[in-house]
Amino acid sequence: MKNFLFIALIFITFKVYALEEIFYCSMIDNVGFEGDTNYKSQENYKLKEAVVSLDFRNQTIFSEGFGFSDATCVFDYNVIACMELGYLFTMNPDNYKFTLSHGFGYALGVKDDILISYGNCEKF
Q: Is 53 helix (H, G, I), strand (E, B) or coil?
């Protein structure tokens, strides 16, 4: 009985620490408005692939490739949504489809590009 409790405790502890998941995400399309043309031209941007780390315990995301260093997330049964300084990453936890948007310069009077992309992630 003590062995069973010990094993159960180890399993529960492992589950608590296994609340971080790693994904490999690839864009299917990446389009937006060019800041240098005062947002009058729409452009196709380079497709990116990135590793995305979601920490369910701390509700954060880290993805160097997508521009997230320590974003705050909301983890719901139907959606994962993470935001950090003009960047928004949204993923369906059932099929790992995602959308990514970024650009806040227009709202602040700074000329940066406004982009939206979508794609798929695979769990490592």
A: strand
